[in-house]
Each structure stands twice: as structure tokens, then as C-alpha cells.
Amino acid sequence: MNLFIEQKDKILTAGYAPAPFMLDYRKKLSIATLANYLVHTAELHAERNGFGVEKLQSKKHSWVLIRLAIELKRAIHGNSNLHISTWVDKIFGITTLRCYQIAQDDEVIGYASSVWSAIDLEKRSPVRMTEIFPDKNIEVTFEHSIEAPQKLPSFSPFKYGLPFEVGYSSMDINKHFNSMRYIERCFDILPLEEALPETGFCKRAVMNFNKEALHGERLVAGYCKDAVNDSLYHLSITRVDEPETVLFAIDYYR
């Protein structure tokens, strides 16, 4: 997957070559695939610096993605390689703020930020990273132009997709519904020509991963257009039998 991996001053950069099957019908990289690249780059950085998933799991802990924000100046095309840099910006008690720089064709075309939490796999509760790795000094000061992703307000969807069940192929290593699948399911219900036109691209996306979904649970995605901003869509995924509990939410700006 990676063309190269290099690290300097606690900032890791990885190169990616988008394959045709990773592009959407517009020959552009989808937000779900970009988010997958971001998460993969974060994993590489964590592993190289001694706090990766395998290290945490040996201590009966793991990482959980809580929020993610992406801002792009233009679409990511599939004709040239993509370079993603990542670093830990700040540690706040039980959460960690990680940031990213996205570049293509020798141009910085976007930034992303994410909030992670380490969890105790037996108690299913968050823990302070300083308790797991008391001697780690991993924070980096690096100039960027994106704020930490915030909690999204609730909304009432006016259109729903078809219900679906969490199966084997959509589960992650924590036995939860895979975070990237949430994104794919939400974008699948958007009106194609209106929300995802050939000439457009996602300028900003903010995602909240609120609750776990487990194998066999039945979920459904819904969305509505913002009442004021014609370019903003609010999307969410809930359990079919528990529609008031939002498992995942995303604000998408086209």
C-alpha cells in the first residue's frame, strides 16, 4: 500500500498510489478511502513510536477513533501519488488530538484532525495514555490550518436508506462495525447528481463516531439538507430499533 514511509522530528510521512478500484465514478478519491489512508498513516506513526495497536493490545488496551475532520482545497485525483503526514498535536487526559497534512503534485491540498481515545478492552472504558505510557513524549508543534473536530448537533433525517446488518466483512479488529463502513453507508444514500456531482468535491467533512455497533445489529443511515447552507448535508447512522441513539454522524460540505 505504501510507496514510502519516513519520519523526521516525530512527524511521519507516508506515500500512497491510488489504484483504480479506490476511485469513485468521477475518478476521484472518495472520502471513505481518504479517511482509511489517514487512519492507516496514524497506525504507522503510532507503531513506529511505540504506542501502536499491537503494543496496546499486549497491555489489554486499544485505540478508538472518536472524531475526524477533513478539509480539502480541491479533489484528490487518481493520476498521481498522495503524501500524508501525521503527528500528535496534543494529549488531553483520556483523548489525543492527531493532525494530518495532505499533499499531491507537490502541493498541500488539505489538512485533517482526529480525536482518539485509548480504551481498556476488558472494562470497555477509556484510560489516560499517560497511565499506559508514562514516559512517552510524543507531542509536536506544527503549523496547520484545521481545528479539532467538534461534537455535531443532532438533527432529524427526512430520508433513510435501506436497513443493513453488521456482518463479518464490516467488522474491525476490535469486533466493532468498521469506522470506514459508516462513511461509505452514509455517502451511498446521498442523491448522486445533487450531492456528488462530477465537477464537485468534498470541501469539508466532520465525523463523530459515538457508539459501537456489534455483529448482527441492524442499522440504518439517514440524511437531511441543512436549512440555511445549501451545500451542507447532515447524515447519521442509528440502530433500526433504537433510532434516537446516533452511532455515527457526519456533516458533509460539497
UniProtKB/TrEMBL annotation:
Keywords: Transit peptide. Pfam families: Acyl-ACP_TE. Gene3D superfamilies: Hotdog Thioesterase (3.10.129.10). The keyword Transit peptide applies. It comes from the Bacteria. One of its GO terms (molecular function) is fatty acyl-[ACP] hydrolase activity. Residues 22-131 form the Acyl-ACP thioesterase N-terminal hotdog domain. The keyword Transit peptide applies. Belongs to the acyl-ACP thioesterase family. This is Acyl-ACP thioesterase. It comes from Porphyromonas macacae. The lineage of its organism: Bacteria, Pseudomonadati, Bacteroidota, Bacteroidia, Bacteroidales.
